[in-house]
Structure formats: structure tokens, C-alpha cells
Specification:
By secondary structure, the chain is α+β, with helices and mostly antiparallel strands. The chain has two domains: 3-151, no CATH class; 158-226, no CATH class. It contains seven helices and six strands; from the N terminus they run E-E-E-H-H-E-E-E-H-H-H-H-H. A six-stranded antiparallel beta sheet has the order 3-2-1-4-5-6.
Length: 227
């Protein structure tokens, strides 16, 4: 299969960058949803992407082929786009990514290492096809681990009360624009539980979304005050 057909960065979505782009700092961003889908983004930098595709996490052969194409030492950057434009071509609103779990693979600076991964290990500078097989396996295992982590954290629904408590703490700002500083540690703890957006329990998902909204409000309020 020619995986280039899956790429949403194509002649219909391409953009002309307004500066010279390099290839050495490319990264790979992954988004998982509760239905077992993965959005793979090949990122040139903060402004441009060279790959975007939706596949099933369980489609290991396809995901292996995608990594083989985009994960080499010198990735094939034929054209670039931005995330919102590429996703819009698939009738997928960019804002919907808020409901997907996000993680990332970075180019490694360590000797003889190619990629720093969120899977608990590095990918070495070995045969690309071998690394691609590891990648396809790892995203499947990682997704299963996230679902298991959700199940343990949910504690049969008991964790809803903890989220209620945390939300109340965030909302106690009154007119104090510096309340963000007082709850920054709490926000940091909950940010590490980003996997809860994959929870099967709707109430837990909704309360976690509310936490992120409140945390964002407090942060913006604080930043406005200190400027």
C-alpha cells in the first residue's frame, strides 16, 4: 500500500512557508481517541506539518509503513501545511483534538539514538523498518496501558469526588488574579492525568475537561495581571 495516499498534507492543503524550513528537528505527534483511532502528525516545527493521517491503532502494518515513510533520519518533506487546514480537508475540526489524548516523539540528542519516545525507551539508529515495527507495536501497547491507567484511577467512579474537590479549589479565586499561583501545584498534578480524557466514564471525562477549562482561565487571568 502506498501510504502517501493517507496523508492529508497534499496538493489541496499545501501552504507556502514564509521562511526556510529545516528537516533535522522534525517530531512526531500522536493523538489517541477512545475509539482506538490514532492521528499521526509529522511536524516540521511549531508552524508547519508534513504529515497527517488517521488510522486504527490496531492497524500495525499500516502504522509501520507510515513510520517507515516519516521517521527516517532525513524525512521526506515534499510539501507542508498546518494542522487546522489539513484536518479540515477530512472534515475534522481542529478544536475536536481537545478530546483526544496527546503525546509526542522527539529527535534524540543522545549518542546513537534516533528518537526519544513516551513509551519508556529510545529508538536507536538502526534499520528503519525494524524501528517502524517497534513503533506500531508500541502505540498499541501504550494505548492499552492508558486505558488500564484510567480504570485504576477511576476507582469504580470514586475519583469523581476527587475531581469535584479539585474543581472547587480552582474556583475559589474570587477576584484574586494571583490565585493561579496558589493552585499551581494542584494543576500540575492533574495535568499528569491527561489520560482521563480516554475514560469510559462520561462524568469523569466531563469533569476533567472542566478542570482544563478552569486551569486555562486562571492561567490567562494571571498572565494578564503580570504583563
Amino acid at each position: 500500500m502506498d501510504v502517501r495516499k493517507l496523508n492529508l498534507v497534499n496538493k489541496n492543503t499545501r501552504v507556502q512557508p514564509n521562511y526556510d524550513i529545516g528537516k533535522s528537528e522534525t517530531s512526531i505527534r500522536l493523538y489517541f481517541n477512545r475509539n482506538g483511532e490514532v492521528l499521526i502528525i509529522g511536524q516540521v516545527d511549531n508552524n508547519y506539518i508534513y504529515w497527517a493521517s488517521f488510522t486504527k491503532i490496531a492497524d500495525r502494518e499500516i502504522n509501520k509503513a507510515i513510520f517507515t515513510y516519516i521517521g527516517g533520519e532525513l524525512p521526506q518533506v515534499e510539501m507542508v501545511s498546518n494542522e487546522s487546514k489539513a484536518l479540515a480537508s477530512a472534515h475534522f475540526p481542529y478544536e475536536a483534538l481537545d478530546t483526544w489524548y496527546r503525546t509526542e516523539l522527539w529527535r534524540a540528542s543522545e549518542y546513537n539514538m534516533a528518537w526519544q519516545t513516551p513509551f519508556g525507551h529510545y529508538y536507536g539508529k538502526q534499520e528503519l523498518e525494524l524501528t517502524a515495527g517497534y513503533f506500531a507495536r508500541d502505540i498499541s501497547i501504550h494505548f492499552d496501558d492508558l486505558l488500564e491507567r484510567c480504570r485504576f484511577r477511576e476507582a469504580g467512579g470514586a475519583y469523581e469526588a476527587v475531581l469535584d474537590y479539585c474543581l472547587e479549589e480552582l474556583k475559589r479565586d474570587g477576584e484574586d488574579v494571583y490565585h493561579y499561583v496558589q493552585v499551581e501545584e494542584l494543576i500540575g498534578i492533574l495535568q499528569q492525568e491527561h489520560y482521563l480524557i480516554l475514560s469510559e466514564r462520561e462524568q469523569i471525562r466531563e469533569k476533567y475537561f472542566l478542570f482544563r477549562k478552569e486551569a486555562g482561565r486562571l492561567y490567562n487571568q494571571y498572565q494578564t495581571a503580570i504583563r
